[in-house]
Amino acid sequence: MDQITSIIDILFKIYYYMIFIYILMSWLPNLRENFIGELLGKLVEPYLTPFRKIIPPLFGTIDISPIIAIVVLQFAVGGLHSILALVFG
């Protein structure tokens, strides 16, 4: 059980950092055009797109949807931990 939760935590941290780096790359648009930027876009955008459709940018330019997406991801990981605790004890 501890190994499963450790793996889930590691995967969450990796995806969290991928989202964070992708957000930082948006400040320098040329970075998104290289291989790493395109790879991160393919991995992160499918998760961020539903949040961007629901949450409009503030003042027309400030996009807070990645922050909400990270919070939802944290809740999902917490829920997954709870489910695993109930199933495996």
From TrEMBL:
Short name of any one Pfam family annotated for the protein: CCB3_YggT
InterPro entries: CCB3/YggT
GO CC entries: membrane
Residue spans crossing the bilayer: 7-28, 67-88
Keywords: Membrane, Transmembrane, Transmembrane helix
Keyword Acetylation tagged: no
Presence of keyword S-adenosyl-L-methionine: no
Family: Belongs to the YggT family.
Protein name per its UniProtKB record: YggT family protein
The organism of origin for this protein: Paenibacillus borealis
